[in-house]
Amino acid sequence: MTIEFTDWPQDRAQRYRDAGYWIDQPLTEILHSRCQAQPQALAIICGERRFTYGELDTLSSILASRLAEQGLGQGDTALVQLPNVAEFYIVLFALLKAGIVPLNALFSHRRLELTAYAKQIVPKLLIASREHEVFRDDAYVQAFAEVGAAPAVTLLLGESDPAASLAHWIETPGSQPVAYAPTAADQVALFQLSGGSTGIPKLIPRTHNDYHYNARACADVCALNAHTRFLCAVPAAHNFLLSSPGALGVFHAGGCVVMAASPEPLSCFALVEQHEVNTVALVPSAVALWLQAAPAHRDKLQSLAYLQVGGAVFADSLARQVPGVLGCQLQQVFGMAEGLINYTRLDDSDEQIFTTQGRPVSPDDEIKIVDEQGVPVAPGEPGMLATRGPYTFCGYYKAPEQNASAFDAEGFYYSGDLVVLTPSGDLRVVGRIKDQINRGGEKVASEEIENLLVLHPEVTHAGLVAMPDEALGEKSCAFVVSRNPSLKAPALRRHLMELGIAEYKLPDRIRLIEAMPLTAVGKIDKKQLRHLVSVENTRTWLQTRLRQLIEDSEELDPEENLIFYGLDSLQVMKLAAELKARGIEVSFEELASTPTLASWWALVEARQKAA
Questions:
Q1: CATH number (domain holding residue 542)
Q2: Is 478 helix (H, G, I), strand (E, B) or coil?
Q3: Cα–Cα distance between 404 and 409 in angstroms, integer?
Q4: What is the per-residue pLDDT across 52-72, written as a single tens digit (0 to 9) for each?
Q5: Which residues are modified to O-(pantetheine 4'-phosphoryl)serine?
Q6: Same domain, 100 and 141
Q7: Angle between helices 489-498 and 446-453 (to 10 degrees)
Q8: Distance, CA of 327 to chain centre
């Protein structure tokens, strides 16, 4: 029995085999080959614990055998949620060896997400941590049963009862070894999670062949080798940290993964120094924190050679700081759990590295950039990204409607990204088509949050849009129409938390409005909501900037002439130039003719609306 999925057309599959991309070996071969070549080499450092490749192989085999003893194997699925600990990889290889297909949930996911995943895959096995709020008591049993997904076997990290203790099952062999085997190389190895725009992420079946090549190709582009010490500080379950090149790429190259609980700078800097880490992969929001903290701790980062940044668009202004502040080489990454991975190369020019998201890692990655009618756009013009290739999937799991809209007749997958092809052949990401917020690499589906907000008894309408943020790339802003004009933002966030959503999905900003703007066909006018965000952000920026320029500006009266606060002509010229740099076309003469904050707000809003 195998997991159903949409396979590659035979002609393309044969082409990928002929080119050597697909080698018809299971992902377990990554570990097996390392054990043959260097069984005593360090594979994982986790706190005070060390695991060689031989030990990783032995422990994962014990767990695989014990799971097989329970009748689990090919055709079964597992829901796994573990923090950044060595057990994550022990469990992963055990499941791959036993032919059990895992879905690795992020540790930030809560009851709502976990039960939705369980409903989709109906797992026979659940592996989680007592440290997580959902599993601190046994109420989760009923929650899973209510969605028709009660696992046959549950193993918990931190559980005291040996019968359900993950640690006990890993360390204690069964009464007798039981045979097990991975699924075939052209079958599903694991599920990844999409950054869905319609609520709970869709599931992405990844086969051994395509995922193995994904990790190998990225490892080659990033020049990983047996001397690589890779810091895993972003959630290990992320596709970025698992296979792009991530831990699987490091294991393929014979390097060592150093586990970090989070990307918090000071604790990570200590790990870099202690273990001579030379490579790290981070999302832009984490890099921003590292850049702030690094100047006072530069001596701890002497071994750091490479920084891979992905998960969200990395601002040029931050990218340019990396070599000087962190003392390492930057590689930008633009990838997706569905497949296509782009990297800047180690020998690219500074401008390519700082201002683009690189180019595909495989010679057989096919991309096209098209307009809304599917016509290719001119070079340098923004368009929708479509792709297919040897590690880009061919369909979401049991989702025919979504697949019909996500793929064209030629099998190209439309990611929802707006990109520009630069003269150097690199991609620059300029936006998204999907109704989704990319918050520091974590994807938030607007529709999901809107549907949950209107469950509040005092909310009649809700709309969620992205707003720009230098550190995170994007934050979320919720516009809410309420029956109660005194409804406060904390009450709405409390309502969302009580529904069991992940904390990163909470709106960063909540604004109550009298009426929801609608399009001609009665849908929420997201363009108008984004305009409201832009106007508010500009108002806030303008007021803050004036306070920086004016000495006596504690209480700025919007109707008072700013000259009487001490603002001079040179400062007005500077403001006009700064507004122009923000894309707002106003002249010095226009500002000088009506020098009040209220007039400037009105002028700027009119220009933004016109634009």
A1: 1.10.1200.10
A2: strand
A3: 9
A4: 999 999 999 999 999 999 999
A5: 569
A6: yes
A7: 100
A8: 25
The CATH number for 478's domain is 3.30.300.30
Could you write out the three-class secondary structure of 122-155?
Answer: CCCEEEEECCCHHHCCCCHHHHHHHCCCCCCEEE
pLDDT of residue 525: 87
Same domain, 486 and 577: no
**pLDDT tens, residue by residue, 102-133:** 999 999 999 999 999 999 999 999 999 999 99
Asked whether 56 and 89 are in contact (CB, 8 A), the reply is yes
Contact (CB, 8 A) for 433 and 418:
yes
Residue 71's domain spans which residues?
53-183
The CATH number of the domain where 81 resides is what? Answer: 3.40.50.980
Give the Cα separation of 85 and 99 in Å (integer).
22
Determine what percent of the chain is predicted with pLDDT higher than 70. Answer: 98
Which candidate, 269, 321, 265, places its Cα nearest to that of 470? 321
CA-CA distance, 572 to 586, in Å (whole number)?
A: 11
User: Do 559 and 442 lie in a common domain?
Assistant: no
Q: What is the pLDDT of residue 190?
A: 99
CA 61 to chain centre: 30
Does residue 130 share a domain with residue 166?
Answer: yes
Does residue 555 lie in a domain region?
Answer: yes
Domain boundary among 516, 537, 560: 516
Residue 490 domain flag: yes
Domain-ending residue, one of 183, 203, 223? 183
The whole-angstrom separation of Cα 43 and Cα 51 is: 6
Place of tokens 């998960």: 311
Quote the longest CA-to-CA distance of the chain: 89
532 and 512: one domain? no
pTM (2 decimals)?
0.82
75 and 135 assigned to the same domain:
yes
Number of domains in the chain: 3
Whole-number Cα distances in Å, 80 to 59, 151, 386, 498, 503: 17, 12, 31, 23, 19
Write down the H helix ranges in 461-553. Answer: 489-498, 526-549
**Residue 466 sits in the same domain as residue 535:** no
Identify which of 505, 500, 504 has the alpha carbon closest to the alpha carbon of residue 147.
500
| Residue 455 sits in the same domain as residue 571 | no
Which residues neighbour 127 within 8 Å (Cβ) at sequence distance 6 or greater? 78, 79, 80, 81, 82, 91, 154, 155, 156, 157, 166
Min mean pLDDT across 48-62, 448-462, 551-565 is at: 551-565
In a domain, 45, yes or no: no
First to last CA, the chain: 57
Helix axes 246-253, 208-221, angle to 10 degrees: 70
What's the pLDDT at 521? 59
pLDDT value at residue 554? 66
* Cα distance between residue 487 and residue 445, in whole Å: 24
Mapped onto helix, strand or coil, the DSSP state of residue 533 is helix
- φ/ψ region of 165 (left if φ > 0, alpha if ψ in -120 to 50, else beta) reads beta
User: Is 521 within a domain?
Assistant: no
- Listing DSSP states for 271-338 in one string gives HHHHHT--EEEE-HHHHHHHHHHGGGGGGGGTT--EEEE-SSPPPHHHHTTHHHHH-SEEEEEEEETT
